[in-house]
């Protein structure tokens, strides 16, 4: 397959699987936010989306990509797109069949302050009558930091083709001269990623109803001229039970039988196939994509197991990290396979979709030259793939100069003094048991903390950040550019902080936060003050919807040169007699939400970060901060996909948290926060963290996620979120009270804290003030019922 203008036929084809959809200058974010605020209309939004797709196809073609994907673009989330495609739209959104409006699509993604339906903002929804509808639940996409919208299925679920987006975008690309390979989430992975609206049935039992929609889509694509379709089944990187195995056999046999005119590239990623290799080898598909970065060990076994006529897509370039590939080393590893297999039965690709990396390193003019030479973003990874294709097809001499440069860079990086700090390595390698342990058991600490803090029942707090208003962002930007001097900027931040403290006092929040107006991002802020970290200016990746992040780069040994948060926490505490929380991002999250160096194991890197944070926790306590929150929202996210690997990861992850929090006295209350995770998987580890208070996301799941803490009999205190901060809607007092009542039925009242699901940085002040005022009133009502 190639673009219609064709590429060099002697080269092994190059595929991307999927590319970033946000635009070089975050055009998608700007367009979405303008559309949501009413500044542009639907036609303008869709035109910008079309321009982004066209630019992406053009870029890939010009860089030598011969298998260009379509339908990898999304206005919000590709799993949500799949739900809409098959008509898996819960009744609450008022959809009555037919094409799905953008209003309904975005209500599923973000919630709506008013009822929605296909007939307008106050449509025919019968459930909320003016109170709006909540967004669908959101959780992490496997072990990445990308969030997807969780499909919701009912026992009597009906499916129908409700969106032809995949067909429309294939046709759109073809009109521009590109023969693309459409991408779809595979039906088995789609069902497994969902949730049941009610208990008592297996989601895979819906497969007979779902398959006809997929068959219809494939038939329409074939009729339009599509030769191949990429079906993503990353569930194959998990431990697959018998029902999943049976479902996969059913699905791909059905496709082979009913749509014989189209070839399927079955894409697996985020790990090796393991015991699923023989299953995949027997599926009637034309091609199989293998993640040979995270599943490098499967190269030999998988290639031997696959039939000779199956096209193997070799995922040899890391689609999730930003390090330049050592091309000569990689060629040595894959040349034997290439020599043993027909070239037309091979493709070169990243390990997974490049959704998870920034677009173009060439935008980074200010990076340290050495560091920049070690990096590779989406554009550079495509160049690496085409270089490999030429080397394998035409011989290494055809790219000899490129390989010479690659060898020199790899050698310089390995010995660079910018990476290595012997003192940091020694500290992280020599750990005594006492370092990762609080002085006394929780019951004893709790009594001491109660005496010091003197909090009411159902104490209220927030997770940390307050809205980063346009004024705050402008002041920060002006300061960065030098247009606002240090003194003026600090005076501005002090005013914002004091206003936030006074407002919290006014509405009656019990444990305050300073608002974090000085912080740009919960990881970046700390990374900028730690050695061994570096930052880009344009290295944006999508977290969810219009929420993008610039992950820091951990390139060397990590340490803390000086205190990072003490000044602002101490200032905020000086403004009030109420407890003020010190706010830190935990070591696992600092690791997980960064691009991590690939020349040191992740557990070793995490221990270095933990010791740097430990120094900060101790300094906060010395400065008079008696409540310190060490957030670990990414703990579950880092869990390996295979259960056999869980214990090793959780052992070092918990140890790192305890190292960071273990240096304080019993009187200091340690909080942590986690969001959007299946806590059942890690509940023992959460208990082992031994935080005094944990706050968790529970509002979207309607307290379902709390079940893990009930069944486990979690002994410490818990703040189940009663306010979904990812939606602009304001829940009323009765809605929050209902959630508190659910928590009270499952937990001891003296365990419960009242708080939002997450930080409030991305929200607007009017909705935050209304929602938190309601939250405080709900807490007061709970106290009155004691």
| Total number of distinct structural domains | 2
CATH class of the largest domain, named Alpha Beta
**Low-confidence region ranges:** 1-9, 117-130
How is the main sheet built? 7 strands, parallel
Q: Which second-level CATH architecture of the largest domain applies?
A: Alpha-Beta Barrel
Gyration radius from CA atoms, angstroms: 26 Å
What does this structure look like?
The chain is of the alpha/beta class and 786 residues long. It contains 27 helices and 21 strands. The strands form six sheets. The protein has a seven-stranded parallel β-sheet. Helix 25 links the parallel strand 20 (693-696) and strand 21 (717-720). Helix 7 runs parallel beside helix 8 (242-258).
Provide a concise account of the structure shown.
The protein has 786 residues and is α/β, with parallel strands linked by helices.
How are the secondary structure elements laid out?
Layout: H1 27-36, H2 42-62, E1 69-70, H3 78-85, H4 102-110, E2 138-140, E3 147-149, E4 152-153, H5 165-175, E5 181-185, H6 187-192, E6 195-196, H7 207-224, E7 228-232, H8 242-258, E8 263-267, H9 277-282, E9 287-291, H10 299-305, E10 311-317, H11 327-340, E11 346-350, H12 369-373, H13 378-394, H14 400-415, H15 422-429, H16 442-453, H17 470-481, H18 486-507, H19 524-527, E12 531-534, E13 541-544, E14 547-549, E15 553-559, H20 566-574, E16 581-585, H21 587-592, E17 595-596, H22 602-622, E18 627-631, H23 646-661, E19 669-674, H24 683-689, E20 693-696, H25 707-711, E21 717-720, H26 733-746, H27 765-784
Parallel strand pairs: 1-5, 4-6, 5-7, 7-8, 8-9, 9-10, 10-11, 15-17, 16-18, 18-19, 19-20, 20-21
Antiparallel strand pairs: 2-3, 12-15, 13-14
Helix pairs in contact: 1-2, 5-7, 7-8, 11-13, 15-22, 17-18, 22-23, 23-24, 26-27
